[in-house]
Amino acid sequence: MKYRVGIIGATGMVGQRFVSILAGHPWFDVTVLAASSRSAGQPYIDAVGGRWAFEWPVPEGVREMTVTDAALVDKIASQVDFVFCAVDMPKDQIRELETAYARAETPVVSNNSALRMADDVPMMIPEINFGHAAVIKAQRKRLGTKSGFVTCKPNCSIQGYVPALEPLRDFGLEKVMVATYQAISGAGKTLRTWPEMTDNVIPYIGGEEQKSEQEPLKIWGSVEGGRIVPAVKPVISAQCIRVPVSDGHMAAVSVSFAKKPPRDEILARWDAFEGLPQKYKLPSAPEKFLTYFEEDNRPQTKLDRDLYRGMGIAIGRLREDVLMDYKFVSLSHNTLRGAAGGAVLTAELLAHEGWIARK
């Protein structure tokens, strides 16, 4: 019996990704599509209208599904086992909405940033820090719930380089300098709807650099007394740049260690690394989490963003650095691994481990 799933914010770009990914999912069945009151009451195909962002059509199973007002928390909670949330609202309203669903005994797997840094809200890359799910017990106590909680997916900009650094942490990560070159879909845009990006680069993405510098420290933090205490190291300096690419975030990374590892050891660890999603062979898990390309001109966004259905991380150009120890480039698909796909994989692992139950 499949889990009944709601998508809150179903008409936006990430919401559309959720709709596409969950079509035919072996564990999850979409029973509710929710959005703002402007879209409520319309068939999904009409609510999306000309804003459908992809080359493939709206999946048949949801085309005529009536969109529900996302504010009708109790109604939606009665029809689902859990929800994915990808709304475009002010942060205080997102916090209020996601907390309301949790208090209605409906787990929330959020794509939003509003609750990411709350110390009893897990912010997970499933292969790296699923142990942070332990704080859900403390969050439930705070909220007064038996089954409801909120968990978040990290920012899309860190999905490429944090996985590459994870297998190397025991060498003592000291400093990280990273420049991310981010696709326009991260802003909910396409090349068709954002003509200003044609032949253009914008060296600023609001709030992105702070997230890129702070969120990895929470991911690498420890669970202490029902809260997540962020790591102190490494010190991270980030620059985030918007580039005229449809999908795929590239990162150029330089790193220094307390104990510099041999290059061959780094490559061996990248090749061998796997997490719980690979161990359990979850439906959305890439067969191989980290893939290193030996070619000097790889990874390339257009060629490699869809690695393992967009859920794998591509790495290349590992070489010694004159200022730090090593530098490399890495690539992740920002709306698959970095957004909807990463959230779906998180939900699969939460369900597998018993944190999400059927009502």
Task: Write up this protein.
By secondary structure, the chain is an alpha/beta fold. It has 2 domains: 3-155 and 340-352, Rossmann fold, CATH 3.40.50; 157-333, 2-Layer Sandwich (Dihydrodipicolinate Reductase, domain 2). 28% of the residues lie in helices and 22% in strands. It is built from 13 helices and 14 strands. It has helices at 13-22, 44-48, 60-63, 73-77, 91-103, 136-143, 161-165, 208-219, 263-272, 276-280, 301-304, 307-310, 336-352; strands at 3-8, 28-35, 68-69, 82-85, 108-110, 150-152, 173-182, 222-224, 227-229, 235-242, 249-257, 290-293, 313-320, 326-332. The protein has a 6-stranded parallel sheet with strand order 3-2-1-4-5-6, sandwiched between helices. Helix 6 (136-143) links the parallel strand 5 (108-110) and strand 6. Helix 1 crosses helix 13 (336-352). The longest helix has 17 residues, at 336-352. The protein is globular, with a radius of gyration of 20 Å.
List the helices and strands and how they pair.
Blueprint: E1 3-8, H1 13-22, E2 28-35, H2 44-48, H3 60-63, E3 68-69, H4 73-77, E4 82-85, H5 91-103, E5 108-110, H6 136-143, E6 150-152, H7 161-165, E7 173-182, H8 208-219, E8 222-224, E9 227-229, E10 235-242, E11 249-257, H9 263-272, H10 276-280, E12 290-293, H11 301-304, H12 307-310, E13 313-320, E14 326-332, H13 336-352
Parallel strand pairs: 1-2, 1-4, 2-3, 4-5, 5-6, 7-10, 12-13
Antiparallel strand pairs: 7-11, 8-9, 11-14, 13-14
Helix pairs in contact: 1-13
